TrEMBL record:
The keyword Transcription regulation applies. InterPro entries: GntR_C, TF_FadR/GntR_C, Tscrpt_reg_HTH_GntR, WH-like_DNA-bd_sf, WH_DNA-bd_sf. One of its GO terms (molecular function) is DNA-binding transcription factor activity. This is GntR family transcriptional regulator. Coiled coil: none annotated. It comes from the Bacteria. The keyword Transcription applies. It comes from Paenibacillus naphthalenovorans. PANTHER family: GLUCONATE OPERON TRANSCRIPTIONAL REPRESSOR, TRANSCRIPTIONAL REGULATOR, GNTR FAMILY.
Length: 231
């Protein structure tokens, strides 16, 4: 965790957990609730958490909260501090550079496996179409999710479940910052780049598509680093 992270001790909002019709274990429901709150910015990096506080807000006992927090720790979304305190993890600049370096290498290799008739192209186009719809509705959070869907669709061409899960976890590391840099201008520019990548693949210009993809990821990294250094 970033040693310069400012701890947030103020209260936060979590709606009570609606578990009446759920068929998943309670700890899983609590875990999903907390993970969503971290990724959408409700629980910000540096936010101090307590089992009692979360249990009260979600109207559950402490046991599933404790179990959920342990799962979040394995995903590096929360960190335990001395004195049994728990805090929402802040990625470091090194984390950001490493995540994008890995993504650039893996996504480029995956893109090279997508031929002009590959079925994953339809998934990529769907991500673009749905992303545009969300942008026009002003829902930039959902638009950001479609950005992730586009890139995970590329990864799916590798047909490697372990790689897919690993890259998905990398997206979790950085996606919480979307709330800080998502703008309509950003969304339009990224959509245009996504469309160019798909168009080049359809034309059989794979290496040119890879070049556009790497530039696209480099720009995204620069935006994120800029936001990070201002926090």
């Amino acid at each position: 965790m970033d040693s310069h992270l400012t701890l947030i001790t103020s209260d936060f909002t979590l709606e009570p957990l609606d578990y009446s019709s759920s068929y998943i274990p309670l700890r899983e429901a609590v875990y999903q609730k907390l993970k969503t709150a971290i990724l959408d910015g409700t629980l910000k990096p540096g936010q101090l958490l307590s089992e009692n506080q979360i249990a009260d807000k979600l109207s559950v006992s402490r046991t599933p909260v404790r179990e959920a927090i342990r799962i979040l720790e394995t995903e590096n979304l929360v960190t335990f501090l001395p004195g049994r305190k728990v805090v929402v993890t802040m990625p470091t600049l090194q984390d950001i550079h490493e995540v994008y370096e890995i993504r650039s290498i893996v996504e480029a290799e995956a893109l090279r496996r997508i031929t002009s008739s590959h079925p994953v192209i339809r998934q990529m186009e769907e991500a673009i179409e749905r992303g545009e719809e969300y942008r026009m509705q002003g829902n930039l959070q959902k638009r950001g999710e479609m950005n992730t869907y586009f890139h995970l669709s590329i990864i799916s061409a590798l047909e490697n479940q372990r790689v897919q899960q690993f890259i998905d976890s990398l997206h979790d590391t950085i996606s919480r910052f979307r709330v800080y840099y998502l703008t309509l201008e950003w969304a339009v520019e990224r959509e245009d780049e996504h469309k160019e990548i798909v168009s080049l693949i359809k034309q059989g210009n794979t290496e040119q598509a890879v070049t556009v993809l790497k530039k696209h990821l480099a720009i995204s990294k620069e935006n994120l680093v800029s936001v990070f250094t201002q926090k």
